[in-house]
Amino acid sequence: PKRIFSGMQPTGQLHLGNYLGALKNWVALQDEGSFECFYCVVDMHAITMPHDPKALPGAVRAAAAAYIAAGVDPAKSALFAQSAVPEHAELAWIFNCVARMGWAERMTQFKDKAGKDKERASVGLFTYPVLMAADILVYKATHVPVGDDQKQHLELCRDVAARFNRDYGDGEMIFPITEPVIQGPGARIMSLRDGLSKMSKSDVSDNSRINLHDDADTIAKKIRKAKTDPEPLPDTMEALNARPEATNLVGIYAALTGRTKADVLAEFAGQGFGVFKPALADVAVEYLAPISDEFRRLVADQAEIDRILTDGAERARTVAAPVLKQAKQVIGYWS
Ligand code: TYM
């Protein structure tokens, strides 16, 4: 069967990068109908960095509400919290013994997140991508829709699957070699304050990102204030690509409307940002306002979210349990 797995961390609030890089594709793949979809809130990954234990369950509910507001349908897709499916953690231990130190040491995201003082980073932060491999492979997922920044982690997942199959599969392909689905102009959305750094929840400036819960005025204001250059939009992609901030805004417009950047450029070439920014703000508000309205409605209904998460975890476990059992058998566990 064709299976999708993907997840997001419940830290802070989801932003436009999360939506255009991942969520929007999750919903499209779910609605396409030929995949069995598992969409997870990865609270086990959230504890790899300093966090507030009291705030975590609420953040998980908020992330789940955002998934649903964006179009994840709990009747079609299993929506659950990672910590509610212990099979992830059990398979992660096995994979910790399959993955090599050298693979984990190459991960650029660990280097970025650990910062200068690697000695003080948690061991969990180091093996973070191994847990990701377990998240995916405990469902034998064949496809994983993510933003561009997860590409290297998915390569490690493929390496883990290939190595496990080779060392323990006895000629059988126990785990699939999962395909990343990284597509379209939304795969890498940059900060509104700096076209060379990623839009991120950890940026200190709230003006650097559009949050899924921002209201229409805030969205319009952030776009108006977005960093740009004084030139009008060019008429070739080559000229656009040399201008990071302009590229990013055109990319956001394209991703929101489901068009290509070249197509958007053809419409706006020769126009200044005095014209383009208000047009972008209109599009952003039109697409995001219904999501943020629905988000606010859902997040107030904790009982409903908890019911959905409990049901999703049950469905996830019925798939994950037999896969874990098979992995335990071939690795030689006693029980
Ligand atoms: P996280 O929580 O950092 O991000 C969630 C998703 O949003 C995408 N994304 C972006 N896409 C485009 N532009 C941006 N500026 C941007 N910022 C974030 C990410 O690529 C991601 O798809 N390690 C993962 C969570 C995870 C996971 C998994 C994903 C855990 N296990 C298994 C896939 C499969 C993470 O921290 O994503």
UniProtKB/TrEMBL annotation:
Residues reported in the UniProt entry to bind L-tryptophan: 135
Keywords, in A-Z order: Aminoacyl-tRNA synthetase, ATP-binding, Cytoplasm, Ligase, Nucleotide-binding, Protein biosynthesis
Gene3D superfamilies referenced in this protein's UniProt entry, alphabetically: HUPs, Tyrosyl-Transfer RNA Synthetase
Catalysed reactions, semicolon-separated: tRNA(Trp) + L-tryptophan + ATP = L-tryptophyl-tRNA(Trp) + AMP + diphosphate + H(+)
Keyword Endoplasmic reticulum in record: no
Entry GO terms, CC: cytosol
Binding-site residues, ATP: 9-11, 17-18, 147-149, 189, 198-202
Location in or out of the cell: Cytoplasm
GO molecular function: ATP binding; tryptophan-tRNA ligase activity
InterPro entries, alphabetized: aa-tRNA-synth_I_CS (IPR001412), aa-tRNA-synth_Ic (IPR002305), Rossmann-like_a/b/a_fold (IPR014729), Trp-tRNA-ligase (IPR002306), Trp-tRNA-ligase_bac-type (IPR024109), Trp-tRNA_synthetase (IPR050203)
Catalytic activity, EC: 6.1.1.2
Residue ranges annotated as motif 'HIGH' region: 10-18
Span of the annotated motif 'KMSKS' region: 198-202
Single GO BP term: tryptophanyl-tRNA aminoacylation
Main location: cytoplasm
Organism domain of life: Bacteria
UniProt function note: Catalyzes the attachment of tryptophan to tRNA(Trp).
Subunit structure, as described in the record: Homodimer.
Family indicated by similarity: Belongs to the class-I aminoacyl-tRNA synthetase family.
Annotated protein name in UniProt: Tryptophan--tRNA ligase
